[in-house]
C-alpha cells in the first residue's frame, strides 16, 4: 500500500462560483489558484494559501441545492490557524462576515468552542457550507500510524 501524505483538499459545492470566490478571498484571505489553467476554470475553482490548494469550489448544477440538514449530516471543513492568531480571528470575523454578506438570506451565525487543547470558530459561507477555523494550544496533534 502507498503512503498517505495528508489531506490534499476539500471539495465544497456552491451555487455561484464567482460569488464564492469573492467571499472566500474576502473573509478567509484564500487565493484563487490555477486561475489560468483551463482544467480548473469550468465549474471548479481551487482556493488555497502559500501555493497549497485547500478547497475545490465546485459549481452545483442549476437543478441542485447546497446540502441541507443538521450540522452533523452536512459536515464541515476546518482550517488551521496559529494559536497567537486565534484571538485576531475571534475579534475580526464578525465584521468580516457582515462586510462580505453575499445575499440577504446569508447567515451571520458564529459559534466558538473551547475543546481544551483546541479552540474553534464555526460559521457558514453563502451556501451554508460550515467552516471551522481552529487553533491547537497544547501542541499540534501527531498521527502515529494509519
TrEMBL record:
Species assigned in the record: Effrenium voratum
Domain VOC: from-to ranges: 6-136
CDD domains: VOC (cd06587)
Protein name per Swiss-Prot or TrEMBL: VOC domain-containing protein
SUPFAM superfamilies noted in UniProt: Glyoxalase/Bleomycin resistance protein/Dihydroxybiphenyl dioxygenase
InterPro entries: Glyas_Bleomycin-R_OHBP_Dase, Glyas_Fos-R_dOase_dom, VOC_core
